[in-house]
User: What shape does this take?
Amino acid sequence: DNKYAARFGKVDLGTSSIAAMAISRDGGNIFTPDRLEEIRARMEAAEEATLEWKGHTITWEDVCASNNVGLGTTYEFPCARITPLDYFQEAGWFFEENDRVTWRNSVIRKSIVKPIIPRFGIMSQYCPTQCQHQITLRNSEAYAVLNGYDASYANPLGLLGDIASMEMNDPCKRCIEENFEVQINNLLLATKGSFGVLAQQIGILIQSGAADPSSVPQLATLAGQYGQLAQSLTRADAEEFFTYYTTRGLYPAFNLDGYKEAYDQLVAVLRTPCLQVKATTRPDLICPNETVTDDEAEQAMLDHADGPFSSYNTAGSPFPWWSDASGTGKLFEGTSGVSGSGINMAGELLSMAFYTDILNVQNPPAWNPLWDGLGGFPTDPLNHPVYQQTVLGDPTYNWFMAVYETQDSICQNNNLTGTQTQVVALDVGSAFAMQEATQNWCTKHDVPNKDNSGRETSYTKQHFSIMWYDLFIDTFLGIEQGVDSPFTWTLGQGCGYSLAGERDQYADSNETSVLASASEILYYIDEGTSVGPIDRNILIGGANPSIEEISSENPLEEATVIQSLYAIAFPENVVKKVKNCNRPGGAIEDMNAAEAEEILENFKEEMEKIWVKGWNDDNDGEVQFVYFSDDAGSVGTTGRTLLDITLDNGKLMSISICLIAIFSIILLISPDWIESRVLVTLIGVSLVVLAYFASLGLAILFDIKINISTAWTLPFIIIGIGVDDVYIVLMSLKKQGGYSHRSFLRAMREVAVPVTMTSVVNCLMFAVMNISDIPAVYLTATVAVICVIALYMGVLFCFPAYCWLDMERQAAGKMDVFFCLNSDSDGSSHAGKEDKRQVWLYEKFYYPVVLGAPVVRIVVHMLLFLGALALLGAGIYGMTEREVGLGLEDFFPVNSQAFVWADTRTQELASWAIGMNWGEIEYTDPMTQQKMIKQFEDVVSTSKVAEMNTDQLWMSKFLIWSTRHCTSNFDRDDPNTYLCGMEQTYEGDGDDSGTVCAGGWMKNAVGLRDKTISDGRGDCEPFSGGICRPASQMFAEDLALAGHINETDSDTTSYCPFAEWSDGKFKWCLEQWRNLTNTGSGEFITDSDPTPTECAGEFYRDESIQWPIPLTTGPSMWAFDLQSHELTLDLLSETRKFCDNDPELHCWMDGIPYDYWSQYENVFEVLMELSFTSVAVGFAVAWIFLFGKIFGEKRHSFSKVFCGTLAAALIIGVAILICLMATIGISILAGVNLTGFSNMSFVLSIAFSVEYSVHVVSRWLRAPLILTSSLERVQYTMSFLMLPTFMAWISSTIGVVCLAFTEFSFTEVFFFRPLIIVMMVTYYIGVYVLPAFLCYMNADIFKLGKTEEESRSIHPGGASDLKLDEGDENGGPSDEPGDDGEKDGVELAVEVKEEAPKEEAPKEEAPKEETPKEEAPK
Assistant: This one.
């Protein structure tokens, strides 16, 4: 599945992430004010990280995955991240001033002001009946309580939220939406039509000459403006007008109590002094009444809204107490308020349409404009009272004509003026009172102002009116532009949040309050509107009570860990983003993907340095900071650590090679400088090392990357195996006892077969590892195959050439190492000298203990067999106790911050991001659509996947978009463009051309979830659940089309959306949905590039989708409670049951748990498959080689050779199997989990077992038949092999022991432990147990060596005559070309020490004749 996805460029979940963890050092509660502030400060420092690149400063904003709230806002909104600190106001530090402005303009205005306020006007004017219940609930506490709501539900401001949250089928919402569309369209048509008619009538008036000539220029200008408006007005203009017209009405509707309260406060302070001054010196003062009526208050506020805009005090005051509205008037000397919008909208709405009779203008017989009854169109319309009332008084007229009136004003916050009576007490008191009553609406972002004149051209009257109403709305909602953020002003969308509320603060709060705040539902800054609630299992660890048990009634008592998650862009997205026109510091045009990848890698590391500063200093604060970044897109923490581990092997590998070389020198050096073989040994070791590195280089040329397994197994194992063969060659040469050509050939013939056999077995064994689908295993195995081939070529073809030269040195009497110097004696005198190491190892130790006196031998054999059984038993038991998996904590050094992160994560915050994918399925089939959604819901319902709403899946969103329940039109950016499917007309080539993207509803046939629909009573429900709906929550039209029968179907019958269209229509509608809604839901393969917006680096979603859809994805999901490998495997099993293993509709899960832990689902089965296949290969190759070699010698019958070699191969196979099982089980008992790495180490035991068993069994089989007993043949075998096998064991063990000194526990656990067990077990079985067992294998089929006649022709003395003097060149009767070296009697014979059953035969010494020195071949 992943390979299939990779064909289309999908290699991961699509984002990279950083997990920044904070841990209380004392293990106590981390939700304290001081500790939270320490975390906040560290987050701020980390997010301020920078890098310098080609003269540009790269910031977090450049590399984060998302820092926008729609097109045109990139770099104008903070980077997305989720953190438990989002519970608190203090987390809003990352909202810089520009971000807060964007949030106000692009979020608040888009989601509340623009869509809700005009709909509130529709609700009030056109839907009082349909919305009566909701309106009464929000205005009457008694009614709210009577209907089961809390008294606090009665809040008129809540109606704004209700308008947004009501279901589309709610009668109130339906009335609002239907009337909104109709009334806005009517408003637009009526306004445009009226302006058109007026433009035409004034034109006729001017042409008729009836107009006053002095007014003609003005009338001509008006006619042009009217005509322009008739042509240019759009639905967006109409919506904007209606928004502010409604806002004007909201002023008194929601501010009445506030006005009266402020009125009473000011009157209490100023009325009495005013009356006193009025009575004495200023009778002209107009002192305020003691009380104010509701009507008076309402009118005052409406007058305030209609008043002239003030550049002195823009906010002004609604109290009608000043001499003028400019802001500089005198208090109590008039009846004017201060300031206003500058546009009078007090007239009757659309009276202009009544005047022009616009409804009938297209029907001339019925058209009856108002002026027809007044004697015709007025010749001086601007001064005509009816025209003034109906046209000039129309709010729409004043609003739209204000665009032609320039105004030199600014936004300013001077204090309201007081009285100017010259009575100090009143003037000073009123000035102070007005100062307190002054509202400072203007900010530096409201342009023009005294510090920023804005554009060079003048602003219009409409501009200042919009400014005034926007500032009023901000005040009404409690928002200060550039100051407030989602942390100080909430949308009221999430549970526990109210409209215009604020998030809690931890500063100056006690611990109990902080914990109570942290017990609520956690949301991102949008309060769940985009992704729903954030699962706290991924962010809060060490919680008591558990996350699932936390509620407001059962609050959090403590938590010890907090984790913040940051999303990072991929390189290609960084390249696009930095070209953005809004980028601070200017766009970057010359960055490519490779450079972006390097930048991302460095930025991750830079953030890590800042975040983890002082992590290991217990005195550095109360919080420990640790960090992890993934490797998606660029190398992160794991990648750097693996690189460090991989490259860290150099020192230990060098030490290992040096120790092996030193050990080799010690074993092969001799006091006799001619007999010594130090130089040729070093050459052999060097050839092995050279072969290894040559193989590594060749593998790299084959594009095989060096991984941790390659670095930490092959150099320590392969070099040991190669050196073992070097020892075999050298020992064989040494045993020949001479320096002649024939001695050299005899030695090579002796070693060629076993070395070839072991090399082939090892090569095939590594090749078998390609069964594994774990790259670290099969790539390492591939490199190992290359290494084995290179070692074979080096040891059997290159190394012998140096051995021949060394024999010439010895024959010439030259010294070892100093080969230019002659020794005191000639070379022949040194041939066949007894090796003291051989004497000590074999004759002094091995022979008397293992092969000596019967009683001792039998006891030792019994102990060896018991030991083998014990190893086998331990192995079997260990395998039953197996555990699987390798966690991140196993990779990192225990003294690293990454280890602390990984260890804490495993214990407290064991979570990973996961995803779902679908390939080329029948997306147009309704049942496929239902099953696809069902798969998603089933996966979400599993025990370890965080809850998600079904509408997070793209198919769910798309299907809802195609129904009447689509909400995309609610807050569309362009009112002229409808965004829902039922408004998109498909124009194609098929029969469905001209139809709309309208889906249908079908009965819930697969058990999908219904949507959770809350009516506001009871506990808040944070999740909306599914997308299906009960019949009671459906449109009647949809029920009819779905075949709902009231008599037989209940209100709870569930219906689900579907879309049954042709391929062409489905593709087109899908593309329309993505483009119109700008949704990022799902990932699709496209055939074209998206269209860039005006600002570089941003794109529309108008790509052409590849059809049929080859691949698509679900939303980002989270899996949690994965504290162990077994629990992670449970996750895989639970989720794949509904996805990967679904026989009807295939999908596949991905994410780190699946990409990484999947190997452990059948890791034991893979191990068994690798093991038994390797054992079978070892058996087969051993038998083939043994049979081929021995049968080719033609000494024995086919049947005997066949049976004997087959039985011998079985013995080798059993030895391999015992070694393997013992190694696996004992390693498991030693704490080694089953992983790809440990499996490889286990299987390596076969290589060493083969090395020992093949050499032992091969030599034992081919022992001369003059050695009649099996014991003699074992003595014959081990007298030669004891020293080389010991040397091989020591050299290999040296390499493995070096692994114990790494600082990485990973290598110690998964490489050192199993490999050191391999060394011990294979040596014990191969060199002790196997020979002991062979002592009892005396069947005739095993006797496949030289015949007794051949042996006696060479050694008349029989078995006792088999001594080392066979190395003499005269020892054999034949020197004919082509002799195999055994038929001529050449055999590496040793003295056989065997206790005779009755009496010991006298030892007979070979004649000591001096053989003439043979001249070395030229």
Summary: The mean pLDDT is 88. The two ends are 65 Å apart (CA to CA).
